[in-house]
Amino acid sequence: ITPSEFIKGLPKAELHLHIEGTLEPELLFELAERNKIQLKYESVEALKEVYNFSNLQEFLDLYYEGANVLLTEADFYDLTWAYLLKCKEQHVDHTEIFFDPQTHTDRGVLFATVINGINRALQDGQEQLGISYRLIMCFLRHLSEASAFESLKEALDYKDLISGIGLDSSEKGNPPAKFERVFAQARAEGFDLVAHAGEEGPAAYVSDALNLLQVKRVDHGIASINDPALVAELAKTKVPLTVCPLSNLALKAVDRLEDHPLKKLMDQGVLVTINSDDPAYFGGYMNENYQASAEALGLNNMELCQLARNSFEASWLPEEEKSKHI
Ligand code: HPA
Ligand code: ZN
């Protein structure tokens, strides 16, 4: 059995996935045509050529531009369904996906359009493909606190569909402290909390996400490696990190995958998971992330199993459901 067959055979949970980041160039063109939107790019190939980033912001600029083709409930349904078919193919049995409502409501697309399209696909995925899910709404951290409060208010009408609240977009210059009050309100409303921290930003942003925002999981968190006391705390508290190796490579958070801190964190007892982040932009879904990490860091099958087990352990499935997968 080859490493790729082994990885494919592992039941996995994905915990760090932006649904807007699963928009493949082919579907982007199809939706542009369907919605009569003129694109700057002549072809799928021409678009793929610009998917070459030197940092997070360069990626985000294209990611938000790409999202402009998403207008109708059917668009959000088709986007989500295409991702779920990929999950089925890759033995991803459970997925906890992010969506960014502000990217759409700021363009005049209704919150209801976005969430109903995504949710309908997730329900169909559960029924037809057997994939369980959670939905996490993210605030865009480059926007204001007031805008985040507005999104939170809209989310209250859909509390039964939304499990958690997260924080994404441009990290540098937008520290966790900016969202301390809106996260406190989200917590009071009963949402589970996560935040991107320590992707491009410093280890201190990870500590702030833990202490100020009181997140129960940290997205990326790789800068933690620079603070031994923080690594020890993560290992002790078992607050999971949702690591995205191919994303970190594509956005130059690491120069080479061989330099990625994933294994060092794991060896120091941190509950690390592997995830794909924005697979349409970074060159791989879950299995490609597992495979590239295994090759670059020399992970053996026991360690790959541990990572897959971690993914269910770190998920928000009820305990009795977790043990069925692990
Ligand atoms: N980081 C921050 N914001 C994002 C990302 C990411 O990796 N992907 C989509 N939005
Ligand atoms: Zn992310």
From TrEMBL:
Keywords: Hydrolase, Metal-binding, Nucleotide metabolism, Zinc. This is Adenine deaminase. Binds 1 zinc ion per subunit. InterPro entries: A_deaminase_dom (IPR001365), ADE (IPR028892), Ado/ade_deaminase (IPR006330), Metal_Hydrolase (IPR032466). The record marks 220 as: Important for catalytic activity. SUPFAM superfamilies: Metallo-dependent hydrolases. Pfam families: A_deaminase.
